Amino acid sequence: MRTQPDGPASDAAPWAQARDMLDRPGGHLNIGYEAVDRHVIHGHGDQVALRWLGPDGGRRDVSYAELSQLSSRFANVLRAHGMQPGDRLYALMGRDPALYAGALGTLKAGLIFTPLFSAFGPEPIQTRMEIGECNVLLTTAAIYRRKIAPWRDKIPSLKLVLIADGEAPEGCVALGPALEAAAPEYEAAQTGEDTPALIHFTSGTTGRPKGAVHVHGAAIYHAFSGREALGLSPGTIYWCTADPGWVTGTSYGIIAPLVNRVTMIVDAAEFELDRWYGTVEREKVEVWYSAPTAIRMMMRAGAEAAKPYDFSSLRFLASVGEPLNPEAVIWSQQVFGRPFHDNWWQTETGGIMIGNTPGMTVKPGSMGKPLPGIEAGIVAQDDGPLRECGTGEIGELALRPGWPSMMREYLHEQARYDKCFRDGWYLSGDLATRDMDGYYWFVGRADDLIKSSGHLIGPFEVESALIEHPAVAEAGVIGIPDETAGEIVKAYVTLNPGFEPSDALERELRGHARKRLGAAVAPRAVVFRNTLPKTRSGKIMRRLLKARELGLPEGDTSTLESDET
Amino acid sequence: MTPTEIRTTYLEELVAIAPDLDADTVGDNDHIQTDLALDSMDVLNLVTALHDRLGVNIPEGDYPQIATVALAVDYLGRMIALKSKG
Asked: Name one Pfam family in it (chain B) (predicted).
C-alpha cells in the first residue's frame, strides 16, 4: 500500500493524539476491534451500541457485547467460506442490524468493506463490482433477485452471496442460520494503520467510477473528528441519518460513533417528517447529523409542523453533503433552538476537513474552518506552480495531505489518483473562497459533476446508460438548480434515424434510465435536440449546455466546433 | 370523483414520475418507496402533480397517507370531499 505523497504527517498533529483514544493492541489497529470489542473488554458491553428503528414501528437494541458477538460470528462465517484478508465484501442492503454487524465483522476478519447504495440500479452495481473485484456480497433476497441474479456470472471474482433476510435463493447462503452456527468469538485480524479497510466509490466526470481506498488507520481520524467536529463522547445519543451506502453513513454512521462509544440511532425507513421529529423527541437525540435536502424538506413543512415536538434533548446539529443555505441555518435555530452546523469533506478525505464545530460561531452559508491539524488553502492553477489565492478570491479548495483517513489510491487508476495532487496539495475539485475571518465558502464544482440530494453523480455514467437505448445517438447530462435537492439531473439527447421526439419517448428514456441507474441517479428530465454543442475533438460541451440552461455567460467558446440546434 | 377515477389519476401521475413502473403491475399495497423504489424527490414531485390534478393540498405530515395506491385512494377521496364541502 502506498503512502501519501507527502508521507505520513508529523505525530505532533492534533489528530495524532487521538491514537490514545484507541487500544491498538500490540501496535496493530483494526477498526472492527476499536469500534466494538475494545468497549466490551473495558466493561461497557451492556451499553446500547445501536438502537434500530424498523420500518413498521419495530425496535431493537443491540448492545456493544451483542454487536461484538454478532460481528465475530460474521467474521467466522466469512472465514468458514474460505474468504481471506484483503478479499472484498460489498454490502447492498437497507439499514438493518445485519449490515452493521456485517461491516464490523468484515473489518475484524481483515477483509475490505465496500458499501453500495441499495437504491442503485443494476448498472452502477455491476460496474462497481467489476472495478473492485467483489468476492462476497451481503444483500437481501429481494435485491438479489431483482438486481444481481440476471448477471451474477459476469463477476467471476464473486464467490459468496450472503442473504441477510430469510431464505437464500439458489447459489446463495442464508446469513441467519450461518451466524447461529458460527462461534461468537473472533480475534480481530492484526491489521496495521496502512492496511486497506474500505473502498468507497465516487463518480468521475469522465470514465468509470473511482474506488477510493481507505485504511484501518482512518479510525484515528474518525475518533478525533467525531469528537472535535460533532461533539461525540461516550454515551452520547447520536443520529446520523446518512445511509452507509455513502461515505458519510460509514465514516460517521458506523466508525466515528462506535469508536467514540456513543449510542447510535439507526432508522431503517426513509425521510418522513413526523417520524423524524418523533424519533428526535422519543429517543432524546443529542447530536444529529443530517443533510441539506432533508433539512429543506423539514423547512417546506413549516415551523408549525415542528411545534408539537420537544427538541430539548438536542445539543448539536450538523449537516453535510452539499452547501447548507443560510436560510436553513437560521430556520433551524428558530425551530430546534440550535442551528445546523455545515461541514465539508469528500469521499477522498474520508473524514470532516472543514466545519462549523461545537462552540464556534456559525456563519450561515459558510462551511466553517479547517479542523485542528488540517491545512486548507484556496489555490489557482495559472501557468507554473499553484498560486495561493488572497482573501475573497475564488479558487480551488485544496488540502495538505497527511491525515490518516485520506484515500491511499483510486483502485487500478494511478493516473487519475496522481492528477489529484500538485505541488504538495490535494486538489478537491470544489471551488471556494476564504473570508477575512478564515471561514470557507463553497462556490461550485470545478468540473461537471452533479450534486443531487447530497450524492455526487457523474454525468458520464448517466450518458452511457442513455446511449444504450436504441433511440439515443448522443447524450449530454448536466445538473440544474433545484431548491430542495440542490441540483437535479437533466439530459439532452439527440436521436438516431427513425426516431422522433415525443412525450412517450421522453418517458421511455427516463424509465430506461431509472431501471438501469436507480431513481437517485437517473435524469428527472430529458429534452431532445437535433445536435449538441461539441468541441473539435467531438466532446460534448456540458458547460455550455448548463450556461444556456441558466442564462449565464457562455464563457470561452473558442473550442466549439458544432453548436446545439 | 369516484375512487376508480382517483386511482387512475394517481397511477397516471405515478408512472409519469417513474416511467420504469407499469401501472398494470403496481399492487394496491405496494409502498412507493420501499417496494417501487421512488426516492424522496419523486415523492415531492408526486405530491405536486396530485395537487395540480386534483387541487388537493397534501401537507408533509400526510405523505405516508399516499404511500400506497390503497391508502392514497382513501386519503385523496376524503380530501376532495372536504374541499367540495368547504
From this structure: PP-binding
- A272: nearest CB among B37, B42, B63: B63
Within a domain: A528: yes
3-state secondary structure of A267: strand
Taking a C-beta distance cutoff of 8 angstroms, is the pair A242, A251 a contact?
no
Rounded to whole angstroms, the Cα distance separating A552 from A22 reads 51
Per the structure, the count of domains in chain A is 1
Residues 450-489 of A with CB under 8 A from B: 452-453, 482, 484-485, 488
The CATH code of domain B3-85 reads 1.10.1200.10
Main-chain phi, psi angles of B45, to 5 degrees = -65, -35
Residue B62, classed as helix, strand or coil, is: helix
Residue A169 DSSP one-character state? P
SS3 A157: coil
Give the nearest partner residue to B34 out of A55, A273, A524, using CB atoms: A55
Note whether A293 contacts B: Cβ–Cβ < 8 A.
Answer: yes
A511 touches chain B (CB under 8 A): yes
Q: What are phi and psi of A114, to 5 degrees?
A: -130, 105
**In this structure, is residue A513 part of a structural domain?**
yes
The angle formed by the CA atoms of residues A520, A522 and A525, to the nearest 5 degrees, is 115
Residues of B in contact with A520 (CB under 8 A): 39
A259 within 8 A of A207, measured Cβ to Cβ: no
Counting one residue from chain A and one from chain B, the pairs whose CB atoms sit within 8 A come to 64
| Residue A533 · residue A545 · CB < 8 Å | yes
Asked if pLDDT for residue A5 goes beyond 60, the answer is no
Provide the pLDDT for residue B86. 62
Strands A421-422 and A425-434, bridge-based pairing: antiparallel
Q: Which helix (H) or strand (E) holds A472?
A: strand A472-482
A558 inside domain:
yes
Helices (H), A344-471: 414-418, 459-467
Query: In 3-state terms, what secondary structure has residue A253?
Result: helix
**Which of B33, B44, B61 is nearest residue A484 as measured by Cβ atoms?**
B44
Q: What is the pLDDT of residue A7?
A: 42
The enclosing domain of A491 has a CATH number of 3.30.300.30
- Picking from B36, B38, B41, B48 by the largest number of A CB atoms within 10 A of its own CB, the best residue to mutate is B41
Q: How far is CA A183 from each of CA A74, A126, A179, rounded to the nearest angstrom?
A: 9, 33, 8
pLDDT in tens, A228-245: 999 999 999 999 999 999
Closest Cα in chain A to B60: A301
ipTM metric:
0.93
pLDDT class of A347 with cuts at 50, 70, 90: very high
Q: How confident is the model at residue A10 (pLDDT cuts 50, 70, 90)?
A: low
**Cα separation, B85 vs B68, whole angstroms:** 26
> Is A525 within a domain?
yes
- Chain B residues inside the 8 Å CB shell of A273: 60-61, 63
Q: How many helices (H) and strands (E) does chain B have?
A: 3, 0
Task: Write out residues 434-453 of A within 8 Å (CB-CB) of B.
Answer: 452-453
Domain ranges of chain B: 3-85
Segments forming the whole domain that contains residue A529: 450-562
* A51 Cβ contact list (under 8 Å, min separation 6): A59, A60, A61, A62, A263, A264, A265, A266, A283
Specify the length of chain B in residues: 86
The answer to whether A81 faces chain B, any CB pair under 8 Å, is no
Distance between B51 CA and the closest CA of chain A, angstroms: 15
